[in-house]
Predict the structure.
Amino acid sequence: MHPSILSARRTAFWGATVSALAVALISYRFLPLGVEVAMDFLAHNLDGNAIPLYAHIGVAPIALALMPFQFMGRLRAGRPALHRWMGRAYAAAILVSGLAGFQLAFHSTAGSVASAGFACLAVLWLATTAQGVIYAVRRRFALHRIWMLRSASLTFAAVTLRIYLGTALALDWDFSIAYTVIAWLCWVPNALAIEIYLRVSGALDCISRPVAAE
Ligand code: HEM
């Protein structure tokens, strides 16, 4: 690979790692502050929908924090048992917080278009992660990597959502319109970008190769 592409890839990876860890950490602000203060627009869920709310905001940051470590080649090769345990924790966190996120989607105060955006994201998040786990169990590691990259691109929606939301607030855009758009914008470009990367990098070629060649 050309050195400039390699260095751009490294910079993007470390940028994504730092932002994922920062968003995961900041998400726990509800522990000292309480949901009413830290995330007032979600407080209506405390009445009758508290379990999905806490399951989502308490567990999803674990998936986000674990995600970058799963793509560190040296860690994966040097500590394979750790990779497997962190992978199990990542998938379990997504199972819990994805189901809870799906439930929360239908209680969003931003309206039905935003609800549909979050609900689609939840279904795809659960499905891509499940597919990645299935390929790991079957020891189809090239396919495992492809599906976990797809899963990670959706996990990263937690970061992109906050970048777009911050931008919308800074530019003083109408909040309810911006939030409706962002419910889709936070994940559709991520999913497209990873598909382009998989095609350009030749990663999808393994699909047409026999299993033994993976
Ligand atoms: C990728 C699938 C995800 C789905 C479908 C999803 C869905 C949702 C929904 C529907 C809400 C409530 C929004 C509203 O009522 O308007 C929410 C809020 C929240 N989500 Fe997620 N989410 C996902 C991923 C994540 C991840 C990976 C994190 C990790 C940090 C996360 C952390 C949070 C937090 C902390 C909130 C509270 C609001 C805030 O801090 O901005 N979510 N999510």
Observations:
- The chain has one domain: 3-213.
- The mean pLDDT is 95.
- The pocket of protoporphyrin IX containing FE is lined by residues 23-24, 27, 39, 42, 56-57, 60-61, 63-64, 98, 101, 104-105, 108, 110, 118, 121-122, 125, 154-155, 157-158 (CB under 6 Å).
